[in-house]
# Entry
Amino acid sequence: MILQGLSAVLQPMTILLVAIGVAVGIIFGAIPGLTATMAIVMFLPVTYSMTSAQGISMLMALYIGGISGGLISAILLNIPGTPSSVATCFDGKPMANKGEAGKALGTGVVFSFIGTVIGIGLLMVLAPVLCDFALKFQAYEYCALAVFSLSMVIALTGRDMPKGLISAVIGALLATVGLAPVDSKPRFTFGTYQLNNGFALLVLLIGLFAISEVMAYAESVRKNQGYTIETNYKIRGAGFSIKEGLAQTKNAIVSALIGVGIGILPGIGGGVSCMIAYTVSKNTSKHRELYGTGIMDGVVASETANNATIGGAMIPLLSLGIPGDAATAMLLGGLQIHNVAPGPLIYQKSGEVVYAIFFAMVLSAIFMLIFMLFGMRFFVSVLKIPKNFLLPVIVVLCGIGAIGNANNLFDTYSMVAFGLMSYLLIKSKIPTVPMILGFILGPTFETNLRRVSQLASSDPFYRHPIFCVLIVATVLVVIFSTRANLKDARRAQEEELAEMEKMKAAGSDGE
Amino acid sequence: MSNKQYKLDIIPGIVLSLFAAFYLLQVPKIVEFKGLGSTPLTNRFVPYLWGGALLLLSLWILVRGIIRRKKYLAEGGRADKNSFAEAVSDKREVIASFISLTIYVALMGSVGFVIMTLIYVFVQILILTPRENWKKTYLPALITAAAAAGILFYVFRYLLNVLLPVGVLSVFGL
# Structure
């Protein structure tokens, strides 16, 4: 079966389709508003006439290319091309602003490759074991996992905790729009049928990151920009030295493991894994204060984790038929079209296709590395395009992304509304990133909390050790993060007071 | 503490408190499911939880802002008296961008993607260009807008099957 899978992938036609899939995926990932999911949706009909191995290999290539391509716009434009590269913006863009766009891109590409390979390795080796573990997750565990992940917001928010929490709550609150989980009763739809399915994550992301970026630029039209982006530099190799790369070993391994771990859990995709990996990397670093100012570590954590999530998300998809995120939900459709029934019997019934998927993933990762390293100069050159010309076209592409999400014009209205909301929140110094966590985890929390309420009398919580561990971990995260944030806030206040004293002293000297 | 800091607590505090109150008032309108398989926690519980949390957090920053304002004034600071007109003028490019974007998406369905994209891209490029450079921007902006509208429509509508609205151009059989 392994050899059959390998020979199916090594056919010239399959190799060509994988190469095309990766290239198209990267382009979709790089363009804000167009995601790996959309690339898969659009290419799904194209694969109808292909063999199972060819079609699914191409879809996998689109997935890997799409997730990886997101780093390009995250670094060059501060707009995550896909939800998976949200955390790449935090240090990727500051690096580009400092004239290190090539280094940031090189770091992102190489560690995306490493993350993908680690994810695939773990998928191939540990799939049965990890599937057994994921099978143990029931309502209690998912509920606790959502609470644990939401508690990470406190760690993400920094010194202004209430504003970070407000953002997360707004995200969770937006997720309550649409049909309620469990009983499917409409909530906050105000009679608008388009709201029955709730707001799409993609539309929220476009509004939060793309529209607000245009508005931020609009604000600075009459002002002298504080920095010039240096694009005339030489990129050697991958953009960073071997020593710098080796120094990231621990960070990459931990982030990859987080990525795979999060990927295995259905419903929580690369968007959460990159943020959790980034937060863990920041909190365990000796120089956490440098995160967000443009350091390699942040890009490594985010990109390794989001690509490792691909391997993790494939585990429940193949073994249980449970998609890990929106893109794997599309892949599930692709598998069914090609008569591959995901589930515990997949190895017996379609073993060669499963191995073909594994080899196609490896091949896609190699193509992704080659294309993105060779295409790096081209991608960096995107920065040379005047922003006043580039941004309106990006907005249009985002609009197409919003329409294409559900072939629905209503989503463009939501996009503008989220853009306005994001702009006002940013102006009020309310961070928008926790909102994504709230939006993704809110429904998971609600669905499972309601199930738990049903189960509580017959199945008490203490029978769920994973639930208990996660709740203890949540309490610890809240305590330690709150302490760290309060310390930061106190330090900031002291610095402000010292500054004021200095100014007062300077004023009295002047008199 | 600067004058602006307390405003960044008071204004969002008021707006978000009102929003949370409105949200909470909508919760009782949700139809509860009480049939077979209903859960002890109904579909109103979590909205109440999030709405209540938002109200409390908004009041927290509102109170914090009021305390900061008092402290600021007690330290001899002066309340900012920027007029509304000044604020609007200061953000005119942002307001114009939002208006043009809103018109773009509102009319896209009836007028069509190609025409609205052409107009929007052209207008948005000008908004994002300092006025003194407008003269030399007209032609490149028009070319960019036309190319973006035509290429994107063709690629996404005909090659990638995204249902972009044709609008008035449907008379040409597009």
Chain A touches chain B through 63 residues (CB under 8 Å). Chain A is about 75% helix and 0% strand. The beta strands of chain A are 178-179, 186-187.
